[in-house]
Amino acid sequence: MSRSLATITVLTGALLLAGCSDSAGSDDARLSVSGAYIPQPVSADMAAGFLTISNSGAAKDELTSVTSGDGDVTLHETTGGAMEQVSRLPVPAHGQLVFKSGANHLMFDKLKRKPTLGDTVTVELHFAQSDPVVVKMPVKSATYIPKTGH
Ligand code: CU
User: Fold this and answer.
1) What are the chain's domains?
2) CA neighbours within 13 Å on the CB side: how many for 133?
3) What distance in angstroms lies between residue 136's CA and the mean position of ligand 1's atoms?
4) How many angstroms does the Cα of residue 60 sit away from the middle of ligand 1?
């Protein structure tokens, strides 16, 4: 049930993209991804992933799904210490959608192989407006803490 709904969402996104791809106005979302990593998981088939999506454009967008050939990926929010699956997350205009430890994260499930240090896991980010973005997420040590700022 939820799987077929997800498929419909992706198809709708693709149609929207096709409809607006040749109207490249200055008021589009302009997305870039940084700081992607997966802490080496304890479990063989589940892992969390983190990254930052920055939008330098004047229009907001939404992350609608994440796919990977290596397993299932869902979007999770953490509120009050409990994590909850969400179907989409906003990417504000001139803002960021941040996935970080203890907050929003990508949840990998049914992984075909256990991510180990030095591996990369390739994911594709799907948006309501923008073209899909492919991200190679490096697997870091279980205790890796990203540097923040510049
Ligand atoms: Cu989770």
Assistant:
1) 25-140 (2.60.40.1890)
2) 22
3) 20
4) 25
